Amino acid sequence: MKKITFLIVPMLLLGTLSASAEMNVGSGTSTSNSGKSTKTMYVAPNPGFIQMNDLTVQSVSSSGLPADIIAVKGALGGVEPQEGKIKPSCYRYSNEDDEHGSTSDCPPSVSSTYKIKVSAVTKLMLRDRTSANIASFGVGDKINVYGYYNSDGTIESYIVRNTSKPLVTEVVQLNNATLVSISGNTLAVVQSENNPCYYYMNGKTDKSRKCPMGNSDFSATVMKSVSTPSSLMPIWNNVRKYVVTVDSSTTILDRNRAVISLSQLKEGDTLNIYGETSDGQTISADIIRDINLPVVVSSPNTLSGTVTQVNTDGTFTMQTSEGKLVTVKNPITVGSTVKVQGIFDSVSNILSEITSIFFSGYVVSQ
After folding, report:
1. Is 9 inside a domain boundary?
2. Are 282 and 331 contained in the same domain?
3. Whether residues 28 and 152 fall in one domain
4. Which long-range CB contacts under 8 A does 190-196 form with residues at least 24 apart?
5. Which pLDDT band, with edges at 50, 70 and 90, does 264 fall under?
């Protein structure tokens, strides 16, 4: 194998797609010179020059070189902040002078991980393509790797780019997120994949971006004790999960945009959240709007039935004509002003055979 030079750099790793590669991404077809449409061919994962995108670092063996980076494959493709294009996970190159490559199945991993060998000839870069060193790579970082895939499953890296650093703070809005837990000034919220997110840049809204990825679950966050609400159990694995932090500068509004306090938010409320995120998992909230507040009082319902039980807490249970059991809360409390009509026994001071009761705006009559 010839020693690779860095004059020829994979265009895809640097974030520029060639015209031919752009045609193949996500379409499954390409057009030949004859004009016939053909299916994109995915190359078997044999040894050779490859590029792998969206790997997650699990460990780095040393703070100096040489070092081994152990990584796992993330979700297919991935969205880089401020770019917004979903990229294929793997490419194969015919030789070290091949600039564009072709989409390919990713090589098999050993024990679900990849060993990336980093040496003095490896070019290390950050997201903004500035030079980096091995100390710049840590657990949880997302990386793109270009190198030679060996038959033993290791990758001799020539370029490793850390797409997680430096952190990029972005302004995002989540709509229709459900509050599932509150702990002090921290909220755990989830959002259905059908609800929208908006990114803001230079005062303009970008609706074409994917929503922030969120956490796979809350177990590795400060909200690790969050339990799954029964109402969300059927879709829990499909919702996006975010940790939202609130501070003294956060404005909290109700549906009518009147200012309310954090203590008025309740689990189960639907929130719109506007704030900053640098990792797509935690959002520092600037504005939270609870669209369930103020509570809308519905028109009163009239039910009739037979009282089947009087409870010790003052409530009673009645059975309607349809057979439904309904618990009725007693509106009479200590301090209520009441007016009653019935037969009064002045000796025992007992009023019986009640025909009507008037209290606090309610009238109960037989």
Report:
1. no
2. no
3. yes
4. 190/232, 190/236, 190/239, 190/240, 190/241, 190/242, 191/239, 191/240, 191/242, 192/235, 192/238, 192/239, 192/240, 193/238, 193/239, 193/240
5. very high
Residues 144 and 180 in one domain: no
Whose structure tokens read 């719109």? 272
Backbone angles phi, psi at 217, to 5 degrees: -160, -175
pTM of the model: 0.50
Structure tokens at 131: 């030079």
The amino acid that residue 35 corresponds to is G
Report yes or no: 209 and 171 within 8 Å, Cβ to Cβ.
Answer: no
Give the angle 159-165-170 at the CA atoms, nearest 5°. Answer: 135
> What whole-number distance in Å separates Cα of residue 244 and Cα of residue 187?
5
pLDDT tens readout for residues 169-202: 999 999 999 999 999 999 999 999 889 999 998 8
Listed ranges 28-32, 143-147, 205-209, 303-307; the one with the highest mean pLDDT:
143-147
Last residue of a domain, one of 230, 265, 290: 290
Q: CA 238, CA 146: separation in Å to the nearest integer?
A: 32
Q: Which domain covers residue 82, as residue numbers?
A: 19-162
Q: How many domains does the chain have?
A: 3
Nearest-5° Cα angle at 183, 190 to 297: 65
